[in-house]
Each structure stands twice: as C-alpha cells, then as structure tokens.
Write a structure and sequence with these properties.
By secondary structure, the chain is mostly helical. It contains five helices and four strands, in the order ααααββαββ. It has a four-stranded mixed β-sheet with strand order 2-1-4-3. A hairpin with a 2-residue loop joins strand 1 and strand 2. The protein binds zinc ion. Zinc ion binds next to loops.
C-alpha cells in the first residue's frame, strides 16, 4: 500500500468516526419529551386534586344538610306535637324552622353548583390522565429507540476504531505524527484530493510542478496554503 493510500484510508476512517460522534451528540435523548410529560402529569394531578376537593366539599355540605334537616324535624315535632302550647314559644319555634329551611335551601343550591362542577371536571381529569399516559408511552418508545441507536453507533464506532488502530500501526511514525498534526489544525481533514488543479481543502490554485508530483504517486506533497496532504484528482 502506498503511503499516500495509507493516510487516505486513515483519513476516511477518522472522518467516519468524527461523523459518528457528531451523530451521537445530535441524538435526542428524550429530555424534551420528558419535560412535556412532567407538565402533563402536573396538569392531571392538579385537576384530580381540584376534583377531589370539590367532592369532599359537596359531601361536607350534604352532611350539613342532613344535620340541619334532623334539627328541623325535631323543631317541627315540638311545633306540631301539641306538648307546647305557649304562643310565644310556638312562634319562636316556627321562626327556627323557617330559618333552618332557608339555610338548607341555600346549602342545597351550593351542592347543586358543586355537582355541576364535578360533572364538568370529571371528564377533564380522565382526558388529562389519558394524555399523560399517552405521553408516558411515547417517551418510553422514544427512549428505547434512542438506546438502540446509541448501541448501534457505539458498535460501529468500536469497529471503526479497531480498523483505525490497525491502519495507524502500519503507517510509519513520522508520517503518522505529521498527519495528526495537520488534522489537528485543519479542522479534522489532513488529506484532500486535487480538484480542478486546486487544493480540495482550501481551493488555492496549485502550481504545475506540484500537480505533477502529486500525480506521480507516493511523494507526500502538502498544500502550501493550508498544509494538507494532497492526493491526485479522482479519475
Ligand atoms: Zn490547501
């Protein structure tokens, strides 16, 4: 294998490795979906808590009505039982009964309003629960796909890294160091082809003598402008 072909092969492997790393970094790990899910769960929890509070409130009102109704029944028994005959006392009892009737009626209105709220909120809570569960499943599926993708990239990366190591071992040390040096300062690309008599890296026009030397083969020529190793144009 020509020295030129060796570094070109090394460059191809390094470029594929860099592309893989870039792809891996760009992968969406589901953080955005997770945030949305947390918000959906909060909305559901909030709605459920609100509904529960209304249900508790309605139950409290119902107990209150039961208690007031029992009281009213007792007053009415006294009122119509015939045991009490004093007109002033009867008048006072009647006033108590009337006040209780009004209080019960007021609370019953509140109960009605509360029940309307419950009827309205119950399907909302169910909808929010379904939405949160749907997002939960979507996130799980996304994370699973992400893990598979990461595993595939890691496997490919390991394979390429092994090939890269084997290739690097075949290249003489000085050339390898030169390659690494150029790659480090030239944006990861140390070997480029000649394109239309120009450097494929920085596009500077190359002198005829240099083009000839590049075409001749295993004579490592570097671009005077960008320092990259030049390969003959693709034929
Ligand atoms: Zn150049």
């Amino acid at each position: 294998m020509l020295r030129m072909d060796q570094v070109a092969e090394l460059q191809a492997l390094d470029s594929r490795l860099a592309a893989l790393q870039k792809r891996r970094r760009a992968l969406d790990d589901g953080a955005g979906l997770h945030t949305t899910l947390v918000q959906a769960r909060q909305a559901w929890e909030q709605a459920r808590t609100g509904l529960h509070a209304t249900e508790v409130q309605v139950r409290t009102w119902e107990l209150e009505v039961e208690s007031l109704a029992a009281k009213r029944k007792k007053f009415e028994q006294d009122l119509y039982g015939g045991r009490i005959t004093n007109p002033k006392e009867l008048e006072s009892l009647q006033a108590e009964v009337n006040a209780l009737k009004r209080a019960i009626s007021r609370i019953e209105d509140q109960i009605l309003g509360g029940m309307e709220t419950i009827e309205r909120e119950r399907p909302e809570v169910v909808a929010l629960e379904q939405s949160a569960k749907g997002q939960d499943e979507a996130l799980a599926a996304h994370v699973e796909a992400y893990r598979q993708e990461v595993a595939a990239i890691d496997a490919e990366q390991a394979e390429l890294a092994a090939r890269r190591e084997a290739m690097a071992a075949e290249i003489d040390e000085l050339l390898l160091r030169k390659y690494e040096r150029i790659r480090a300062r030239a944006g990861g690309i140390a070997v480029v082809r000649v394109e239309h008599d120009r450097c494929g890296g920085c596009h500077v026009a190359l002198p005829e003598g240099m083009l000839v030397r590049v075409r001749e083969g295993d004579d490592l020529v570097t671009c005077e402008e960008c320092g990259r190793i030049l390969r003959p144009a693709r034929v």
